[in-house]
Amino acid sequence: MSWKKVCPLNEVPKLGARVVRTGTGDIGVFRTEDDRVFAINNSCPHKGGPLTQGIVYGNKVACPLHQWKISLETGKAEEPDVGEVACYPIKVEGGVVYIELK
Prior knowledge:
There is one protein chain. By secondary structure, this protein is mainly beta. The chain is built from no helices and ten strands. It is globular, with a radius of gyration of 13 Å.
């Protein structure tokens, strides 16, 4: 596994996201109000909605298609919905966001 530079932290808006394109699919990098950063698969487990276009609040993102709430920490859908997306290790060093990819 290796760390890939994504962007400076200030290029990920608070309560927003940025898409990282990989050879295996898109990953969403999300930033919370309190500057925590998470990375999860960008496709909702319900109907494949682009999670980076959803609303970030607390430690969750609401899918823009059907409002499924997905945990940014675990990738799991909030009950009563069932499903989950992959989570990726992420770090911020020197004001720069990095993601660990296989």
